[in-house]
Each structure stands twice: as structure tokens, then as C-alpha cells.
């Protein structure tokens, strides 16, 4: 049995915006870098990144 929590929309939006900026700048896209850039915890940044990558893969 898997428990899945809903991530805050504001956190996902913040990570998505940071990903867009890093994509334009050609910078790294690791959870640690995103956490530093967004001010989120590493755990929350990693979970948001995983969710965004999962959504892109589902398209």
C-alpha cells in the first residue's frame, strides 16, 4: 500500500518556475540546486521535482 500526499500548489509552481529559469540559463536541475534557489527544503523540492517529471513523462 502506497501513501501519497498532495504537494502544495505553491511549492510545485515555485519549482516549475525555477526549472524554467534554469532551462534558459543551462544550469543544473538537481533537487539540491532547486531547494537552494527556491528556499524549499530538499525533501519538498525533490518531491515536487519528481511530480513534475512524472507529469511530463505521462504526456
Could you describe the 3D structure shown?
The model has no long low-confidence stretch (mean pLDDT 86). The protein is globular, with a radius of gyration of 11 Å. It has three helices and no strands. The protein is 71% helix and 0% strand. It is an all-alpha fold and 59 residues long.
Attribute tags:
3 helices; 59 residues; globular; mainly alpha
Rounded mean pLDDT score: 86
From the N-terminal CA to the C-terminal CA, the straight-line distance is: 26 Å
Global structural class? mainly alpha
Strand content: under 5%
Compute the number of strand runs.
0
Helicity range of the residues? over 70%
Summarize the structure.
This protein is an all-alpha fold and 59 residues long. It has helices at residues 9-25, 31-38, 42-58.
Write the layout of secondary structure elements.
Blueprint: H1 9-25, H2 31-38, H3 42-58
Helix pairs in contact: 1-2, 1-3, 2-3
Amino acid at each position: 500500500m502506497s501513501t501519497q500526499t498532495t504537494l502544495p500548489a505553491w511549492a510545485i509552481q515555485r519549482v516549475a518556475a525555477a526549472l524554467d529559469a534554469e532551462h534558459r540559463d543551462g544550469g543544473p536541475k538537481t533537487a539540491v540546486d532547486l531547494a537552494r534557489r527556491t528556499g524549499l527544503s530538499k525533501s519538498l523540492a525533490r518531491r515536487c521535482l519528481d511530480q513534475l517529471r512524472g507529469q511530463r513523462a505521462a504526456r
